[in-house]
Each structure stands twice: as C-alpha cells, then as structure tokens.
Automatic annotation (TrEMBL):
NmrA-like domain mapped to chain residues: 2-257
Gene3D superfamilies: NAD(P)-binding Rossmann-like Domain, UDP-galactose 4-epimerase, domain 1
Family matches, as Pfam families: NmrA
Protein name, per record: NAD(P)H-binding protein
InterPro entries assigned to the protein according to its UniProt record, in alphabetical order: NAD(P)-bd_dom_sf (IPR036291), NmrA-like (IPR008030), NmrA-type_oxidoreductase (IPR052718)
Domain of life of the organism encoding this protein: Bacteria
Amino acid sequence: MIVVTGATGTLNGATVEHLLKRLPADRIGVSARDVAKARHFADRGVRVRQGSYEDPAALRDSFAGADQVLLVSGNDPAADMVGLHRNAIEAAVEAGARRILYTSQQGVATDGPYPPAAIHAATETILADAGVAWTSLRYGFFSHSFAPLLGPWRETGVIAAPADGPVPWTAPADLSEATAALLSGERSFDGAVTLIAGEAVTLDDFAGIASELSGRSVERVVVDDEQWVTDQTADGVPEQAARFMLTMFRATREGYFAQQDPLLAELLGREPRGVADRLAEQIGA
C-alpha cells in the first residue's frame, strides 16, 4: 500500500488522482488531518485515516500497512517544521514502511540565503538516519509562484526587481504526475532526486517572453535590494514578507537553483510545461 499525506491539498491530491489511474484504489491510502475533506477519495475505495504531524500515535495508525509513505513538507513559518517532519518520519518507520518519500525543494542547503532550504536539509538528514529506504523529491519552484516576483508588469510594462538568477519554474501538475509514476513504478530512487522543468529562466527571460506573448515591450529593471524592500512596504507588503521574498532573489543569483536535471521529463515521458505556457495562461486569464 502507498499512503499519501497532504492529499486534501492541491499537490498531493493530484498525486492521488494519478495513482488511481495506475493502481487499484485498495492499494492507496490517505492520511488526512480532516478526514471529511478526503471523503471524495474514501467514496472511491481509498483508505482514509486521520493523522497529523502533531499526533504521532494517529500517524502510526494512518501509516499502518504501508510499503511506501509520501510525506508532504510543512510550510508554517511559526511551527517547528523539522520537529514535525521528524514525528512523521519516525511514525512511518514504526508503522513498518519500507520507503519514505518527502516533498523537498531544489536548492537544499544548510547555510544558504533562503530559509526553507535549511529545513529541507535538516529533514533529509533525519531521513538518511532513519534506517529505511528514502527518497527526497527536490521539486522546482511552482510555476504559479513567480507572479509576486514580477510585480505589476502588465500595468507598468516594467519588471522592476532585485538582481536575480536562473530558476526552472515547474508546473505542480507535472510534479504530481511524475510523483505518481515514481511511486507506482518498478524503478526505485534512493536519496535525493531533482524534479524540475527543462529550462531555467531569469527575469530578463521573463521580460522577453512577456513582450512576445503580450505584443508590447516589457522592460526589465534591476532595483537595489533595500530600495525594493522599501517599495514593497510602501505598496502594503509587510516588511517581514518582503525580506523573505528577497531571500529568494539572493538564492537565485547565487546559483542555488541553476541546476538542470532530465528526470522529470523521463518520468513524464514528455517535456515538462515551461514558463511560456504558464505566462500565456496568466495573460489570457
């Protein structure tokens, strides 16, 4: 059995949908904080049990009988995410899982400028010491997340932002499909694997793509880091949120997301969707 956490969310919910196309429903389980939100899976024969990272006993029950457990990474900045991830990993081991998979992120680093990267690094260390097979799925940044970095370019014709570097923005739908293929396939992947789109782009590239798709000239302007934070707060963005976004720019220009990897395309059996596809959807919306 494959047990998936976070299946009431968009990403792992789509992974379960893809698994249902590949496997009988009785080979799939869902561990949900709120089982009522997973009723659409239970109605189709998926085993649904209550579990949360704050409750190891409930997790052990929800993971019982699982050969593989897919753990979704948490994103609550106020919580001890490493501790909560440890709870989930230990519960999966105690429940007898033979492999634990974890939704990590490209650019994992203990001392990089982007804070979530250190959480993923610490979690991968826990996985490596857990005593069972493990796979860390280092996803690319989700392609719907780039909009805040571009600013109001459609109104101004300008992408004004700090200096940046290449990022392979990746469609969540592609990641869900590939993860289901990996979970249900015969090939195992040990340790960390990187699942990213085939093309890494900068904001200069965005400006070129946006110009071509919109039929108007879009200019890329580099703004000093502190001036950008000042501009953001003047527009109503909390300073803490602006400074967090700034860490993304710093990480991109320091090359933390410049890696290329063909694995996502191999799992999909086609090229992943690129930035131009997503930007065209946004322009047409």
